[in-house]
Amino acid sequence: MSEQSPAPEVVYDPTDPMNRKEQMFPRLDPSMVRRIAAYGQEERIPAGTMLFERGQRGVDFFLVLDGLVEVFTPDKHGQIHIFTMYSARQFSGEMNMFNKRAVMASARTAMDCHILRVRSDDFRRMVAAEADISEIIMRAFILRRVGLIRMGYGGVVLVGPGHSADTLRLERFLVRNGYPHRTIDTETDPEADGFIECFQLTHQQLPVVICPEHCFLQNPSTSELADELGLTETIDPDYVYDVVVAGAGPAGLAAAVYAASEGLSTIVVEGVAPGGQAGTSSKIENYLGFPTGISGQALAGRAQAQAQKFGARLAISRQAAGIDCSVQPYRLFLDDGQSLQARAVIVATGARYRKLDVPGYTQFEGAGIHYACTAMEGQLCRDGEVIVVGGGNSAGQAAVFLSRIASHVHVLVRSSGLAATMSDYLVQRILQSSSITLHTHSEIVGLAGDGRLSEVTWQHSETGEQTTRHINNVFVMIGAEPNTDWLKDCLALDSKGFVLTGRCAQGHLLESPYATTKPGIFAVGDVRSGSVKRVASSVGEGSVVIQAVHRYLAPSQV
């Protein structure tokens, strides 16, 4: 008898939502069904009736009392693909139920059904009032979104060269906004030629984004992509919010959570994606409550979901471009020409990494030079040497993360060491790693490559010695420049452009350490002069500032 090969070992992955189907598609107990019934209306719907369609906004919440509902998306040939069904005491929806974004799938009755319909406004009221039901729904919605991302259902196809700056820009936008997608790398994927031939493309036209409903976008801007996918929200210029938060980093998201949870009508304006600089970090290990660490993107995703659960609106891919602070309510102008009004403004636009002053630098941005270090950028670095420039925690986290992927990591700092600028646990890991070399008193002086980065030269400032290596990827994480250009005509800034807080124009102490020189405008997080530039402190500032906002708004709300 021939010896049989052992069956492959099945490894349980607790992060895979398909291993948590009971939580992903829970069946509510009868008492919960009765309580939800108080917020909706029962309907009997014949088989084949559409409940909602992909692309619709503000759809209703459906709880199946009897029957079967199928959820599906069209494929590229127009055929439907059913990827889940809801039966008795199961409910529809995913994270887009908490905002006005376009839904990513369609649903219809597979047979005659007895349905409980809860209108979108009543759904928000129910979630706020029924804590135990809200917990089940929120967990299910998050798992469903993760499942959509992993399986690619309801998403788009991005076709382009994997090392192209535009391909990376679009993929980064989709990843950071949690939008399901599949990337076909025309440099390595055998399926790429078929796509290019099918759509009669030339390589000069790439990248392209292809939607299930036949949308076809040729190298769109991120705002164009967001509009097409329904990620943006329509803004009523005449509606007056209690609070507008400019920026969705840790400080802005914390402010949104506390403002919305305390009953203030809140909108957050963000140019790219929730998370800010922290959202680009591979892992944050010293944030309270996460002993094994958490990625910046995961932390931002949870905070975003939390803010939306309490009713905060998020306007993604729209950033503040100006403000009229001569009128009250204040009017905030966005970069797409829209505007919105609010009684109070929280400036949380954070800071951006500075750029290197090296000849030819701009031509390699996005094509070898990166300002974020997540799994997406990491896959570009497999088995090659990389450089991390910077001595702060973000640089340290990037170096440690990349040391598990790249063949070697070179950390370049202009100072004599890391101890003064980086947390000790990261310093020790870098010094003890055989895959990381720290180069002190060093800076990049030369970049070379044909279309994409291929060679880097750095120099020791004291000896003048130069080193040239074949390197395709450099991660630049040096210093910070505040995102305050849109505020210069309104608020007092320090000599570096950070917002001055806590004192009025005459130098007297203000009621709040986050108050600016304009009443009703506050600044929190990295954008604030003198802030600590840590995730935990930014979250703290964002949560505490709401007390000052309440005090400011109190007279107008009497």
Automatic annotation (TrEMBL):
MF terms (GO), sorted A to Z: oxidoreductase activity
Assigned keywords, A-Z: Flavoprotein, Oxidoreductase
SUPFAM superfamilies: cAMP-binding domain-like (SSF51206), FAD/NAD(P)-binding domain (SSF51905)
InterPro entries named among the record's database cross-references: cNMP-bd_dom (IPR000595), cNMP-bd_dom_sf (IPR018490), FAD/NAD-bd_sf (IPR036188), FAD/NAD-binding_dom (IPR023753), Ferredoxin-NADP_redctase_2 (IPR050097), RmlC-like_jellyroll (IPR014710)
Residues annotated as domain Cyclic nucleotide-binding: 24-144
A cellular component annotation (GO) from this entry: cytoplasm
SMART domains attached to this UniProt entry: cNMP (SM00100)
UniProt cross-references to Gene3D superfamilies, sorted A to Z: FAD/NAD(P)-binding domain (3.50.50.60), Jelly Rolls (2.60.120.10)
Stretches the record annotates as Disordered: 1-22
Subcellular location: Cytoplasm
Keyword Membrane: no
Keyword Cell inner membrane tagged: no
Matches recorded under PANTHER family: THIOREDOXIN REDUCTASE 1-RELATED-RELATED
Protein name as annotated: Cation tolerance protein CutA
